[in-house]
């Protein structure tokens, strides 16, 4: 019964649940009231504003310069966006440095756990700690002592349910993606699923488009598809 559930969860998410992790999880999964809740238990939601600062510095500097050379509307997709902080961090940077007009920038956040997307759509977060880089973006929020609510942005991120393991990948309204963020998601997937995803990301990226993964997701096997680039302490993969 327990192994059956583990296989169903692996099938639905594309994850490989290692034995040690299943030992921590399976009791909680058996207590959960339905399969969606069980799936949410296996899919770690951890995220943060401007998570891994050097990656956001690379977006501020090199990626904004790259976008300026693109004539078409700009398109960015955060795959596995959890509760939305990654999409809004990106949106805040792109608005600050590129001042997009209505319709000039599309940001899509996807995740397969609907409750995380609902949270992201609401855009209301706990007030950040005093050392958070978010403070420099305070005018973009309605803030109280306990919570910060994102205000309207000219090009606000949209959020959509999508399962990376089993569904056709989303395309932007026009053309291909300039940036795909898939950070801290690939590590949970089997090698085979990772390979499949990377090929699909490659086919949906515009020429010289960027793929950004998490700091520990190095994709060493994919040098035929992507050129690894370094920017300060960060790295990204540029479509060949
Ligand atoms: C650890 S969080 C990372 C969030 C964000 N990308 C970051 O780096 O801060 C991973 C997210 O990926 C989502 N996820 C995992 N497997 C997925 C799948 N097969 N399809 C869509 N989303 C998935 C999880 O629900 C979770 O919210």
Question: Describe it for me?
Answer:
By secondary structure, the protein is α/β, with parallel strands linked by helices. The protein has helices at 2-13, 19-31, 35-42, 53-68, 85-98, 114-122, 191-204, and strands at residues 74-79, 105-111, 124-126, 141-143, 147-150, 158-161, 177-181, 205-212, 226-231, 234-239. The chain is globular. The termini are far apart. The protein has two domains: 2-42, no CATH class; 53-125 and 152-239, 3-Layer(aba) Sandwich (Rossmann fold). Strand 9 and strand 10 (234-239) form a beta hairpin. The strands form two sheets. The protein has a seven-stranded mixed sheet with strand order 6-2-1-7-8-10-9. The chain has a three-stranded antiparallel sheet with strand order 3-5-4. The model has no long low-confidence stretch (mean pLDDT 94). The structure holds S-adenosylmethionine. The site of S-adenosylmethionine has 24 residues, from loops.
């Amino acid at each position: 019964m327990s192994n059956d559930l583990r296989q169903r969860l692996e099938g639905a998410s594309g994850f490989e649940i290692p034995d040690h992790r299943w030992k921590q999880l399976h009791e909680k999964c058996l207590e959960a009231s339905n399969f969606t809740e069980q799936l949410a238990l296996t899919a770690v939601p951890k995220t943060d504003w401007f998570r891994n600062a050097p990656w956001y510095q690379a977006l501020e500097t090199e990626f904004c310069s790259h976008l300026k050379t693109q004539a078409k509307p700009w398109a960015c997709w955060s795959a596995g966006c959890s509760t939305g902080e990654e999409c809004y961090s990106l949106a805040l940077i792109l608005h600050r440095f590129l001042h997009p007009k209505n319709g000039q920038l599309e940001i899509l956040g996807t995740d397969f756990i609907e409750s995380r997307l609902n949270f992201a759509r609401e855009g209301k977060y706990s007030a950040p700690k005093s050392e958070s880089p978010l403070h420099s973006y305070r005018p973009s929020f309605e803030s109280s002592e306990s919570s910060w609510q994102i205000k309207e942005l000219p090009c606000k991120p949209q959020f959509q349910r999508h399962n990376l393991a089993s569904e056709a990948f989303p395309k932007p309204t026009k053309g291909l993606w300039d940036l795909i963020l898939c950070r801290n998601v690939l590590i949970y997937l089997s090698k085979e699923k990772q390979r499949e995803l990377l090929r699909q990301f490659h086919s949906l990226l515009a020429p010289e488009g960027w793929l950004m993964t998490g700091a520990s997701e190095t994709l060493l096997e994919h040098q035929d598809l992507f050129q690894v680039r370094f920017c300060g302490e960060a790295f990204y993969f540029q479509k060949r």
